[in-house]
Amino acid sequence: MVDQKILRDMAFFADFTDEELTAISKIVKKKSYKIGEPIFKENEDGTSMYIIRKGEVKACKAAPDGELMTLTLMKDGDIFGEMSFLDERPRSATIVAISSTEAYSIEKYDFERLIDSHPRMVYKMLKNIIFTVHTIVRGMNTRYIEMVNYMWGRRR
Hints:
alpha+beta; Jelly Rolls; four-stranded antiparallel β-sheet; 8 strands; single chain
């Protein structure tokens, strides 16, 4: 069980009530990773989501030659693994710690057990996950337009 005070200080759980923090603290697991340690690899099965308490990780995709290409960096307060957590499909990227990292994981199975007893909390978590995904998509859209403008030298 994770200390509720620690969760209260994390933006992802900021709008949780004391009762909701009690419930979620029972299923959250603390994990620590060393520099260079992979947290999970692209195409692995997995149904856990992670929230970074402190540290930094990079999301990478394998190039055809096997070299890992960095997609993005994530730091304190960011989440990752949310796609497989929601859709139970294989991991879409490799996540590697690039500093000593402390993260909290939530397994989908444990999360789903809270749906009936804490539906409002589950809604809050899903809202926070969707907000994160929307932020990523909006950033990708902006970078795509910038790339198209650079390549074509005009707006389309």
